[in-house]
Structure formats: structure tokens, C-alpha cells
Amino acid sequence: MIPPRASLFLLGALAKLTSGATTTATFTQPAAAPTDTSSFYVGASNGSLPYTATVPGLVFDRFIQVWLENTDYSAAAAQSVFQTLSQEGITLSGYYSLTHPSQPNYVAAAGGNFWGLASDDEVTIPANVSTIVDLLDAKGISWAEYEENMPTDGYLGDNFTNPDGYTYYKRKHSPLVSYDSVNQDPARLARIRNFNDFAYDVGNNTLPQWFFVTPNMKDDGHDTGIAYASDWLNYWLVPLLQDPNFNTARTLILLTFDENGNHAINNEIYSILLGGAVPSNLRGTIDNTFYTHYSTLTTVQNNWKLGNLGQQDCNATLANVFQFVADATGYKNNGMTNGTNLPLLNITGTIPGPLNPDYWAPWPAPNTSCVGAGGGFFWSK
Ligand SMILES: *[C@@H]1O[C@H](CO)[C@@H](O)[C@H](O)[C@H]1NC(C)=O
Ligand SMILES: *[C@@H]1O[C@H](CO)[C@@H](O)[C@H](O)[C@H]1NC(C)=O
Ligand SMILES: *[C@@H]1O[C@H](CO)[C@@H](O)[C@H](O)[C@H]1NC(C)=O
Ligand SMILES: *[C@@H]1O[C@H](CO)[C@@H](O)[C@H](O)[C@H]1NC(C)=O
Ligand SMILES: *[C@@H]1O[C@H](CO)[C@@H](O)[C@H](O)[C@H]1NC(C)=O
Ligand SMILES: *[C@@H]1O[C@H](CO)[C@@H](O)[C@H](O)[C@H]1NC(C)=O
Ligand SMILES: *[C@@H]1O[C@H](CO)[C@@H](O)[C@H](O)[C@H]1NC(C)=O
Ligand SMILES: *[C@@H]1O[C@H](CO)[C@@H](O)[C@H](O)[C@H]1NC(C)=O
């Protein structure tokens, strides 16, 4: 047996050899294991999340999203860790990001709209704008975000520089923190947690039913490239897939990217559905259905019958439910696949909205008459 550190070193060295110019750094393991705390993660944990009873979903009881950064489909597909993981899950060959740059995609995955945003500048979104956590809280479904190298829980700063002088954490990659409905509520803010908390939550088997994972600016590939992010996956995600406190028979995991790298082509990103909830006969298969980041909302809404936000999560063009989930619940998707004429989602800055200074439009009221994958508008459900 090669000891884990040595094999990681070897992987780092191989990635460096094969990927050429994009890899600028050799992967450095941030902790002894993904289940361990580390002084590198800065703030000491405040203990694990309280235990809450599992609210059963129709197809899965836990949904985990792990977002990496800025990579074209073909570049991810060339990495051996993606090839290996694709054999254990469903590869989504029609999954698109929504726009450029990073931040609007994260914000959209929380609130069902990117509000015209086309920058990574710090924004705040009024308290009467709902997000997925309003829907989850209404049903008692526990949730959290885990932000690597965020120094303290619910940290509101734009970024954080570690004692080594490197800025590993940036707020622009945190989907919920910009929503006043979250950042003005201390109980909710405490659920935006760091990786030392993750270690306690996984160790004490208190990981929530919905959570979002943001690796730091190096580990997600943003500052380093896909070879480095692949090494991080081998260090972090691959062993956790075998950990019953993380991946149960009822866990669905989405591994994806915020956006692609080449803005001159449509915004296709490499995504895989993993975890015990993926039916064994579908492991190693490819699903060509057209998905976007809004599909993360509709799949969760469909699974727990949560209703909808009345935003783009209710736009039938953009928000197909992951097909194996739709098949199990009887939900009908729109039939669009990567073979059909898809909307261009590489358009930046020309979508009107309240966060677009060049094309301003008021905050869009939710469409309360829309019926989506989880039923009607969530207030009236
Ligand atoms: C469980 O959480 C407590 C604090 O809540 C912590 O002291 C302990 O180390 C954690 N256990 C594991 C295995 O992570
Ligand atoms: C999806 O369709 C586009 C446009 O036809 C094509 O360039 C791309 O290679 C397709 N993606 C996959 C994974 O086949
Ligand atoms: C834990 O709570 C203490 C006291 O409120 C705080 O100083 C510390 O930053 C917190 N740690 C984290 C990781 O948030
Ligand atoms: C971090 O945030 C501060 C305050 O907003 C800003 O001045 C600085 O440029 C930011 N640094 C990085 C590396 O983003
Ligand atoms: C978006 O991608 C299409 C090709 O799929 C390309 O024709 C177009 O120029 C791109 N748009 C931008 C703004 O780069
Ligand atoms: C739904 O999405 C399509 C594709 O992006 C867009 O053209 C359309 O305007 C959207 N509909 C609404 C009601 O926002
Ligand atoms: C939210 O509040 C603002 C005023 O702060 C108001 O203009 C807007 O219509 C409200 N939006 C909704 C969806 O209630
Ligand atoms: C709201 O949703 C309904 C039902 O899908 C649709 O008929 C209507 O056009 C939508 N309204 C707006 C303003 O998009």
C-alpha cells in the first residue's frame, strides 16, 4: 500500500506533468484528512450542529452540492478523477451554468434568479427576497454551507487572508451570504460554517440534509486550474464517498462547476450525480437532459414537495429536474437535451435586473401563480 500522503504527492506530480501551463502549484493537503480540523482553516469550530430528525424526501434524504470553478467540460472530462467518478454516478452531458462571472451563478442557486448581476462585487439582496432556505425551514429540513478558509461562522467580509498572506476565502463564492434574509438572522448566519465545523459535523454525524460546499480559491481550481482541483477531489470527496456519516443510501451529491472557462462558447460544465441515492443500474451512465443551476432548486423542491420561489426556478425552459428523480416522482421535464437548440447562457451583463447598473429593473415580484416541480408558490402551499 502506498501511504495516502505519498500517493497524493504522486497524483500532484502526475497532474503537473500532464496538464501543462494551467497548473502553477502542487497540491497542498489542507488538513490530515477531510474529517479532521486544521489550524489552516483558521477559526476553531463552535461544535457540531444540533441533531434534528430527518425529514424523508421522495427520492433522497440529503442533497450535497460541491462547486468547483471556471472549467470547460472537455478539460474536466480529461482528468482521471472525473473519469473514475463518472463510473460511480450519472454524468450530466447537458448541464449549463447561467451566466458569467462567478457570483451571479452562486446567488442564483440560492434565490432562483441572479437579479441581472454581472460582477463579483459585494452585493446585498433585500430581506423580502426568499431563498431555498425559506422553503427548507418551512419543512424543518436542516441546511448549511461549508466555506473552506472562511475564518468565523457567518463571516460577512468580502474575503479573508490567511496568516500565510494568501487570500483563500472570497464571499463571491458563498451563495447565501448576500441575502439579507440570511445575513440579518443570527441563527441562519451561524449555518454558514467553516471547514473545522464540517469536521465536527461529519464526526458527530450531524451533517444537515441540504448543504453547499465551497472549497477555497486554490482547491476549487480558481487560482490554480483543474489539475489542482482534481487533486483536492482525490483528497476530499473521494474518501468521503465511503464515509457513512457523509454518503448514505439516501444521499444525492452534485459535483459541478460555477461556470465554464471559455466565454466564447456556450456555458457547458461537467457535472456528475453521485451518492447512495443514485440507482445502481444508472451508475456509469450519461444523462443528456438540459439542466442549469436552477435544476438544483427544482430537484430539491420536487423531492420534498417544497413549492417554489416564483423566480426562474419556475421557468420550465431552464429548470428541468434531474431525470432519475423526475422519473421516480412522475414529474414531466421539458424534453430538451444537449442535442436541441439551447439558450445561450454565456451572455454577461445584458440581462436587466436590480443588480445590473447598466440595465436596471426593479426587484421582480415572485410569480405566485406558477406551478413548478415542487407544487405552487411556497407561501400559498
Ligand atoms: C463532536 O462535537 C464536539 C463538540 O460539539 C467535539 O468536541 C467533538 O470533537 C466532535 N466529535 C468528532 C468525532 O468530531
Ligand atoms: C453539447 O452540445 C454542444 C453543442 O452542440 C457540443 O459542443 C458539446 O460537445 C455537447 N456536450 C457533450 C458533453 O457532448
Ligand atoms: C466560535 O464562537 C466564538 C465566540 O462567539 C467566535 O469568537 C469564533 O470565531 C467562532 N468560531 C467560528 C469558527 O466561527
Ligand atoms: C479584500 O477585501 C478588501 C475590503 O473589501 C479589499 O480592499 C481587498 O481588495 C480585497 N482583497 C482581495 C484579494 O480580494
Ligand atoms: C456564446 O457562445 C456562442 C457559441 O455557442 C458564440 O457564438 C457567442 O459569440 C458567445 N457569446 C459571447 C458573448 O461570447
Ligand atoms: C425563461 O428562460 C428563457 C431562457 O433563458 C428566457 O428566454 C425567458 O425569458 C425566461 N422566462 C421568464 C418568464 O423569465
Ligand atoms: C420588497 O420590498 C421592497 C421595498 O423595500 C419593495 O419595493 C418590493 O416590492 C418588495 N418585494 C416583494 C417581493 O415583496
Ligand atoms: C406566472 O406563471 C403563470 C403560470 O405558469 C404564467 O401563465 C404567467 O405568464 C406568469 N407570469 C409572469 C409575469 O411571468
Automatic annotation (TrEMBL):
<dbReference type="Pfam" id="PF04185">
    <property type="entry name" value="Phosphoesterase"/>
</dbReference>
<protein>
    <recommendedName>
        <fullName>Acid phosphatase</fullName>
    </recommendedName>
</protein>
<dbReference type="InterPro" id="IPR017850">
    <property type="entry name" value="Alkaline_phosphatase_core_sf"/>
</dbReference>
<dbReference type="GO" id="GO:0009395">
    <property type="term" value="P:phospholipid catabolic process"/>
</dbReference>
<keyword id="KW-0378">Hydrolase</keyword>
<feature type="signal peptide">
    <location>
        <begin position="1"/>
        <end position="20"/>
    </location>
</feature>
<keyword id="KW-0732">Signal</keyword>
<dbReference type="InterPro" id="IPR007312">
    <property type="entry name" value="Phosphoesterase"/>
</dbReference>
<dbReference type="GO" id="GO:0016788">
    <property type="term" value="F:hydrolase activity, acting on ester bonds"/>
</dbReference>
